[in-house]
Amino acid sequence: MEHFFYNFPEGIDVYNSLNELHKHHKSISFLISAVGDLSKVSFKCPLNDKPVIFEKKLEIISLSGYIKSTQSHVHISVSDENCRVFGGHLLPGTIVLKSLDVLIGVIPHLNKRSFVNSKYSPENVDIYVLPNCPWSKRAIKLLESHNIIYNSYLITNDEEFKKISNKSSSLTFPQIFIKNRFIGGYSELSNLFVNGDLN
């Protein structure tokens, strides 16, 4: 793992700057440590698309996650002057007050693998997603939270879109297949978990 130490000065947008760093490294970057303060923080709570925004002096408690070209996943927690702690998924609009020091680790050619006990093998669960689709992200998070191994396919052009839509007879995403059988999207997957059919 290569290590890089960066300082973000006053007024810098943390989220956008982290994504800019990814362009330089061209590999998955992991946030190892962060020390600094903010004049504004913007984050999203799990399974809630409405952003939470605070504009006041805040101290960063933690900044963790990974940065990559398709779907970065970064968490932030901050403390106010009364030691109350808030946090969630980092969003654009999080601004450095005075200074922020960030230590980043970069692992070239890293592939994500899962070593869990599950009756569903990687060949059994396939999920087709669209870029920046909130329901696709929720479906993947749901699978990962239940330790279900899956194959993920990012649809990036009309040809791929038509091919999978013809297979499923559906135009909405994500599209999820279990043992090559189309079961639907996020709502159908969630219902399977609620009913205990995938536990």
Please provide a written account of the structure:
The protein is an alpha+beta fold. It has two domains: 2-107, 60s Ribosomal Protein L30, Chain: A; 125-194, Glutaredoxin (3-Layer(aba) Sandwich), CATH 3.40.30.10. Helices cover 22% and strands 41% of the residues. The protein is built from four helices and eleven strands. Strands 1, 2, 3, 4, 5, 6 and 7 form a seven-stranded antiparallel beta sheet that branches. A four-stranded mixed beta sheet has the order 9-8-10-11, with helices on both faces. A hairpin with a 2-residue loop joins strand 10 and strand 11 (181-184). The longest helix is centred in the first third of the chain and has 12 residues, at 14-25. The two termini are 36 Å apart. Mean pLDDT is 86; it is low at 114-122.
Q: How would you briefly describe this protein structure?
A:
The chain is α+β, with helices and mostly antiparallel strands and 199 residues long. Helix content is 22%, strand content 41%.
SS summary, helix count = 4
The residue-averaged pLDDT reads: 86
The ordered string of helix (H) and strand (E) elements is EHEEEEEEEHEHEEH
CATH classification, class level of the largest domain: Alpha Beta
The CATH superfamily of the largest domain is identified as Hypothetical protein, similar to alpha- acetolactate decarboxylase, domain 2
| CATH overall fold name of the largest domain | 60s Ribosomal Protein L30, Chain: A
CATH architecture of the largest domain: 2-Layer Sandwich
